[in-house]
Amino acid sequence: MKTAVVLAGGLGTRLRPLTLETPKPLVDIDGRNIMEHSLLLLKRAGITTAYLAIGYFAEKVQAFFGNSYDGITLKYIIEKEPLGTGGWMHLVDKADFTEDFIVMNADDFADVDFAEIWKVHQKCDAIITISLHQVDDVRAFGVVNFDGDRIKGFVEKPSPEEAPSNWVNHGYYIFSPKVFAYAPKQEKFMLERDIFPQLAADGKLYCYQHTGQWVTTNTHEQLAHVKKIWKHPADSREP
């Protein structure tokens, strides 16, 4: 895999006032901004071209990164208004996506090994393979019902007694180029609601169980926690 799409078009409303003038991808974590940490993870995975799906203060993100970062060619998917987690699929040239590619959220931090996820993806002939992570409290998540590597469905924010597992989607994926055939016609849509359930029904949605580190940055409390504990596995700087 040589190509990735990084989803970074959100408004970061829960981080205001920090994000009133700074787009969330440019918020600092340990001397590098959030997007830089995402790109470091992709560099470690061997990615050479990354499409950044951005909207809010897109011009500031483009001004910071330009056309490349640490050997990765950067291209931009500009959303004039928020298009959900899937709208970017209508804004790219599908001819550029002829092989399996990575899709990931920009605002999560995890030490995922995309090579291991890809092994499952290839073995299962999946259209999408989702990296899963265990959580202690399932009530705030869409919980995954799966059998072996195959995802059977999702239960949204269940009680602990109703949850089929304590494994949740944490925003790291491998996509087959066949996925574009599943994109709904509407401009704005959600991967989680409009594509994943159909793929699960068709037996083409699979999973990898990630047991390493995962932290996110949705709130000021989470951001402070990430700043305190995060050290990127690809970071070669002296401590």
What does this structure look like?
The protein is of the alpha/beta class and about 240 residues long. It folds into two domains: about 1-110 and about 215-230, Spore Coat Polysaccharide Biosynthesis Protein SpsA, Chain A; about 110-170 and about 175-210, Alpha-Beta Complex (Spore Coat Polysaccharide Biosynthesis Protein SpsA, Chain A), CATH 3.90.550.10. The chain contains six helices and 14 strands. The strands form four sheets. An eight-stranded mixed sheet has the order 5-6-4-1-7-12-9-13. The protein has a two-stranded antiparallel sheet with strand order 2-3. It has a two-stranded antiparallel sheet with strand order 8-14. The model has no long low-confidence stretch (mean pLDDT about 90).
